[in-house]
């Protein structure tokens, strides 16, 4: 049985030390034969670094490492000088970024056995590095840049530092286009895709393969790859449950599993945990959601256009773009009309959906969700509205008074209840459409459908359900219509009314 390559992103080490390698060389073969300049956006810990390492070994001519892989007998493995720049390290002050770039260039200089004179000005150093590598070998140069955006996104809470890092990197990356004559192949990876104007003003010839169907599974594990390469580890594993937890990422093609989750799942003895989410909680996202008073129920089957998916603007950060590119949302459906393509986004799987909602609930309420989950779940299963009322009232009453922002924006209560309800393990839909409008919340159990409407202030929530005829959609089912009103002054539930109803099919 081969070993699990946990934390290993060097292709040569994986092959030589008998680790499992999921063959992605068919994608490499396509890239090499189709073009020259490429960009790939994928979430963190999704296999980008390993893919770049694979490219490096191919262009360095290490053919024997690829024996048994797709590309082995299809490519000539001609040797090229490779400049491999890695920004995976955490960076602080702008001076540290300069130091990191300098260290990358120094390492490349030693690996290529060349000597550069222009080390005081980093763009000039990079340019000379490329030219000297070409002059020494007589071969065009391969440029690989891993996590090109990390020095910028690491400073996303500090605008001044972020802009300094952006400006420095823009000058570095602009060298690539000016050195076109000397370059054989160039590949950049990152999490976010910045607009060409902000980062790639001089490099407008990059082919973005992030949402091209031919490269949908370039990172991550497809179903076929998982079942083929991890057969020994899958014995006794409930495959449907594994998919429910860790599958569901879609980049305009087939679904893929999160590779980080899969490796740690097998390594832990098949324990279902939030491995990927726990490696880096989305602190900045939470702050942005709170600052902009973002209405979280919008994340249910969110409809966006292609422009929103494809560009990240640090001057005007879009929450939906950040959620998608960071891996918290993924493509669930694509529709087309006269305006072009519309993308339906949602959480990829149970791990992300549950962890995200748990984390946001705790951050915006200062409470632990686990203290309320079981009572809320049981109240719905037993159709016990008194228990539900008591539990929700207790929930709001437990939130520190200064944190109860019902008086600040109406969506606050919806965010609290939405994130709480989404973690109780029931079929829950937000803003479900009917032919009469949208219902705030619909909860489905084996015996009942709960139609729930919320209002802040004096408007009667139950009356809206009845007057709008929201129940018409659910003929033949037992329906509980529940209206919850919240008081701005008391910052808690002021009215909790319900009616049971069964509409007979015509």
Describe the overall structure.
There is one protein chain. The protein is α/β, with parallel strands linked by helices and about 500 residues long. The chain folds into 4 domains: about 10-215, Rossmann fold (3-Layer(aba) Sandwich); about 225-275, no CATH class; about 285-345, no CATH class; about 365-500, Trna Endonuclease, Chain: A, domain 1 (3-Layer(aba) Sandwich). It has helices at about 10-15, 25-35, 50-60, 95-110, 120-135, 150-155, 160-180, 225-230, 240-245, 260-265, 275-280, 285-290, 305-310, 320-325, 350-365, 370-380, 385-400, 410-420, 460-470, and strands at about 35-40, 80-85, 140-145, 185-190, 205-210, 250, 255, 300-305, 330-335, 340-345, 425-435, 435-445, 450-455, 480-485, 490-500. Helix 15 (about 350-365) crosses helix 18. The chain starts with 10 loop residues before the first helix and ends with a strand. The mean pLDDT is about 90.
């Amino acid at each position: 049985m081969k070993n699990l390559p946990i934390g290993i992103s060097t292709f040569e080490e994986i092959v030589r030390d008998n680790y499992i390698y999921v063959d992605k060389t068919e994608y490499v073969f396509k890239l090499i034969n189709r073009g020259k300049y490429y960009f790939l956006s994928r979430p963190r810990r999704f296999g980008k670094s390993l893919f770049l390492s694979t490219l490096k070994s191919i262009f360095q001519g290490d053919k024997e490492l690829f024996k048994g892989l797709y590309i082995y007998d299809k490519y000539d493995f001609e040797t090229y000088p490779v400049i491999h720049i890695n920004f995976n390290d955490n960076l602080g002050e702008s001076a540290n970024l300069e130091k990191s770039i300098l260290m990358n260039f120094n390492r490349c200089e030693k690996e290529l056995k060349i000597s550069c004179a222009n080390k005081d000005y980093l763009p000039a150093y990079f340019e000379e590095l490329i030219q000297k590598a070409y002059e020494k070998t007589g071969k065009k140069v391969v440029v690989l840049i891993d996590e090109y955006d990390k020095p910028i996104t690491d400073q996303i809470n500090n605008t001044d530092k972020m802009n300094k890092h952006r400006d420095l990197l823009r000058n570095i990356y602009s060298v690539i286009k000016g050195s076109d004559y000397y370059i054989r192949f160039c590949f950049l990876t990152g999490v976010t895709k910045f607009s060409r104007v902000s980062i790639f003003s001089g490099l407008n010839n990059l082919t973005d393969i992030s949402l091209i169907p031919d490269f949908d599974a370039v990172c991550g594990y497809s179903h076929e790859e998982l079942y083929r390469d991890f057969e020994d580890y899958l014995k006794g594993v409930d495959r449907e449950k594994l998919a429910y937890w860790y599958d569901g990422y879609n980049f305009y093609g087939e679904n893929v599993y999160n590779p980080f989750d899969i490796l740690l799942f097998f390594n832990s003895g098949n324990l279902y945990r939030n491995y990927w989410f726990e490696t880096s909680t989305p602190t900045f996202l939470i702050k942005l959601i709170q600052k902009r008073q973002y209405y979280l129920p919008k994340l249910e089957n969110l409809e966006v256009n292609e422009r929103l998916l494809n560009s990240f603007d640090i001057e005007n950060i879009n929450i939906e773009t950040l959620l998608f590119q960071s891996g918290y949302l993924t493509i669930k459906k694509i529709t087309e009309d006269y305006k072009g393509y519309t993308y339906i986004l949602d959480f990829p799987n149970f791990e992300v959906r549950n962890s995200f909602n748990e984390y946001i609930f705790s951050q915006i309420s200062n409470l632990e969700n686990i203290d309320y989950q079981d009572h809320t779940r049981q109240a719905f299963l037993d159709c016990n509205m008194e228990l539900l009322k008591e539990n929700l009232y207790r929930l709001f009453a437990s939130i520190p008074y200064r944190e109860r922002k019902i008086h600040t924006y109406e969506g606050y209560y919806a965010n609290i209840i939405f994130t709480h309800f989404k973690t109780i393990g029931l079929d829950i839909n937000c803003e479900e459409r009917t032919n009469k409008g949208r219902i705030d919340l619909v909860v489905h159990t084996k015996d009942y459908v709960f139609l729930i409407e919320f209002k802040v202030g004096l408007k009667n929530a139950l009356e809206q359900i009845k007057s709008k005829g929201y129940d018409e959609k659910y003929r033949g089912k037992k329906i509980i219509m529940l209206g919850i009103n919240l008081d701005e002054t008391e910052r808690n539930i002021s009215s909790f009314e319900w009616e049971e109803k069964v509409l007979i099919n015509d």
